[in-house]
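tool=predict chain=A
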Amino acid sequence: MAALLDRADARSAVLVGHSLGGYLSLAFHLAHAERVRALALVDTGPGYRKDDARAGWNRMVESRARELEKKGPGSIGLAHAARGILAQRDGRVIESLAEIRVPTLVVVGEQDQPFLAGSKYMAEKVPGAKLEVIAGAGHSPQETHPEQVLAPLRELLARA
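tool=predict ok
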């Protein structure tokens, strides 16, 4: 992300991340807070604080990476990416939520059970964060309910 901002000659950006992209946006903020003007986190989670929960996640990541490798040479890069991007090594991201000082929007579909609790947790921990639960939406409300996502996103951009 930093390289993309550098290439665009941009000092900072508003990050909008869906699912893994939201977690990566939080990780980027942790590493480069000065380059983030605002965060929009859509159907994502903050990672795991406890080692056993993180280990369970990492076992799932390894399983997916192995499945990708079985598909042949064309999928080897994806397997490496899964191990490098999806795997979580510590709890720094979740532990950094209270230190976020940029406008933050947390969006979650009300039917996206795996991300409801994590989204509510993030909205409670990030100072001043706004939580939008999109009625009737699943994991990708930006696709199924675009207007309900765009309205609070526009508000976030105005604040940023």
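Residues 2-47+91-159 form a domain with the Rossmann fold fold (CATH 3.40.50.1820). The two ends are 19 Å apart (CA to CA).
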